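REVIEWER CHECKLIST
Item 1: Sequence provided? yes
Item 2: Single chain? yes
Item 3: Sequence as submitted:
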Amino acid sequence: IDSGTVPTGLTLSPLGILSGTPTAAGIFTFTVRASNVAGFITSTSITITTALPPTITSFTPIAAREGTAVTITGTNFSGAGYSATNVTFGGVTAASFTIPSATQIIAIVPEGAASGSIQVTTIGGTASRSGFTYVLALPTISAFTPTSAAVGDTV
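Item 4: Structure as written out by the authors:
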């Protein structure tokens, strides 16, 4: 390594093999210099973005219908150079979501969501928390006929 540092938890061997598991999130830039037996020297700059795995500690409300905003609380939803890429309700992708902070996501329950787990995906992995209940929308009566009837008539 000519300059900079590799992400904490990773090592670069003399043969140029980068290995390990990142233990810190961030954007890391380092320059690697290599030479061959003929004396040719080259260098290149490498930037790696690392993220710790997300966690979900809670969500509210625990039961919701389509269009409801659900607040998901946890850790590592965003950080230097990354943010959550997907949120699902019972395996169905959220209608939309915003990330107000690294510890909170506000997601909109999609049409056809399913009861089960809420999942949040980032470059650091996928977090899952069970216990979400999808509430079906109540039926709406828009019209009926006849508009008047005697007792015992079918409407």
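Item 5: Key structural point noted by reviewer: The mean pLDDT is 91.
Item 6: Recommendation: ____
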